[in-house]
Structure formats: C-alpha cells, structure tokens
Design goal:
A: 197 residues, mainly alpha, Rna Polymerase Sigma Factor, Chain: A, Butyryl-CoA Dehydrogenase, subunit A, domain 3, 2 domains, 64% helix, 0% strand, globular, B: 92 residues, 6 helices, transcription (chain A), sigma factor activity (chain A)
C-alpha cells in the first residue's frame, strides 16, 4: 500500500474552508473558528515529521482540529457544572416534549410525538438543501449540548472516550445526547420531513 | 407497587427514548433493554422515534464529507493568504 504524503503548500486551498466549516459547526464563532484553523495548520506543519502516512492528510488534519476544539471547550464554560446545567433546564425540556401533568409519567405530548415522514432519509441525503437544514438545526441547539452531540454523531467517537475527553459522567452524557437528539429530530421533522417535495 | 412500576416503564417516553439511544450505542444493560422492549410493545411513538433516530445518525455521519465537498463557510481571502504564508514559513 502506498503511504500518504503531506503537501503543506496546498493545505489552505484544499482544506481551509472545510476545516473552518467544521470549526464553525462545533463552536458557532467566526473568530474562534479562524483561530482554531490557524492553530491546526501551525501544529500540523510543526509536527509534519511525525505524520506516519497511514491515514490521509485530510483525516490527519481533521483529527488535529478535533483536539483543538476540545481544548477550546475545556477552557470555556460549556463543559463546566454539567449536572447543574442539566438540572436547571430539565423542567423546560420536559415540558416542551413530554406530558408534565403531576400524575403523568412523561408520555409524548400529542403535538410533539414523532410523526410519519413524507420523505425518506435516503432521499434527503442526496439533496444539497437538506444539509442546510441540518446545519440550521445544529446552530439552533443549546451550546452546552453541542460538544457531546458532535463527538458522538458527527465525529462518531465512542461513548467511553467522549466521557473522558469532555469530563462527563456517563449519565450526564446520555442526558445531553438524548436532549440533543430529541431537539434535532424535532427540528428536522418540522423543517424538512413533513413537507412534500 | 407492581402497577406503579408497570406505569413507570410503559408510559415514560422520555426514559424509553433515552434507552433507545443507549441500545443503538450497544451500551444498554440487559435490564434497560428489557424495559425498552416492554415499553415499545405499547408505544408506537417511541418505536418511530428510534427508527427515525437511526436514519438521522446516518445523515449526521455524512456531514463531514459534505463539508469537504461543499463547505458551508468560506474563509476570507486575506485570512487564507495569511495562513498559507505562516505555513510556508514553517515548512522549510
């Protein structure tokens, strides 16, 4: 198998906008994203002798950016006091989707229970406009839920690794991922899957 | 007590959907899987949630590739030139 090689002279053209877009999705801030992309390229070029050629240049740079984003999360408030944040927002999340009468057990509210979709996910995948809606739904998500959500569903890392990296207990992690998923499904349903195309 | 537990499992969609995600992740315990199975016997909505959730997973996993082909955001030219100049400085 031929090993991959690095071409730093083409990095900005080939991966600049790509890495910038990933950073925007994960942090929501232009300034932060530009800084993170810069740090990624500089760390990469300094470490270019350690590149082993087993993964592609793109995969390698994506992994470096991922670590930069996690460092950024650690320095910010998004990961702090997760239990307090989740406890404080529990009632409003519950009331938005589930029955909150005193005697109830948390059944879906009638108006938010999942409905049958007009278009399959397979068909949506092939449409460019769909990814705009997907972006929109990520942007709308509470910032505190983003790190766990992105690590699990976009970076596809495994649960144990994510909990360690983000310093989350397994139960807080699941509550975050669950909330994010309920919000995401509902947002996609409202803005895409119920509409006839 | 029996009835209370029964209701807690059968009617609690918030818990059932969370367990559904855990099951898809392969990290649900046997007891959690049993509760979910039991809940889903009665609950159409949660069965649907879990099915749609798996479809969404595939779409989400695709985003990285999409961003490579068609980036949502574009760095300003000036920033790009600046970045490449910095890289060039270090690569020699």
């Amino acid at each position: 198998m031929e090993a991959f090689s690095l071409q730093p002279e083409k990095w900005v053209i080939l991966y600049g906008d790509y890495l910038y877009s990933l950073a925007m999705m994960k942090t929501g801030s232009r300034e932060t994203s530009q800084d993170l992309v810069q740090e990624t390229f500089l760390s990469a070029v300094k470490a270019k002798d350690t590149f082993n050629g087993l993964s592609s240049e793109k995969t390698w740079l994506t992994a470096i950016l991922r670590n930069k984003v996690i460092d950024f999360y650690r320095k910010k408030d998004v990961l702090k006091n997760a239990s307090d944040y989740l406890a404080d927002t529990e009632a409003s999340f519950h009331a938005a989707f589930f029955d909150s009468a005193v005697d109830s057990y948390g059944h879906w509210r009638q108006d938010t229970a999942p409905r049958a979709w007009a278009e399959s996910a397979d068909a949506a995948m092939k449409r460019k406009e769909f990814y705009k809606i997907l972006q929109y739904c990520i942007d709308k998500m509470p910032p505190r839920l983003i790190p766990a959500f992105v690590a699990k569903y976009i970076d596809e890392e495994d649960t144990e690794k994510i909990c360690k990296e983000l310093d989350l207990s397994s139960s807080n992690y699941w509550v975050m991922v669950h909330r994010a998923k309920v919000l995401m499904r509902s947002c996609l349903e409202k803005n895409w899957f119920l509409e006839e195309r | 007590m029996g009835i209370y537990l029964f209701r807690k499992v059968v009617f609690n969609c918030k818990k059932a959907t969370l367990l559904g995600l855990k099951k898809n992740d392969g990290t649900a315990s046997l007891w959690e899987e049993l509760q979910l199975f039991y809940h889903n016997l009665y609950c159409n909505s949660c069965r649907r949630f879990i099915k749609q959730s798996k479809e969404i997973d595939i779409l989400l996993a695709n985003i990285t590739g999409q961003e490579h082909e068609n980036p949502t955001h574009t760095l300003p030219d000036q920033v790009k030139n600046n970045l490449q100049a910095q890289i060039d400085q270090h690569r020699k």
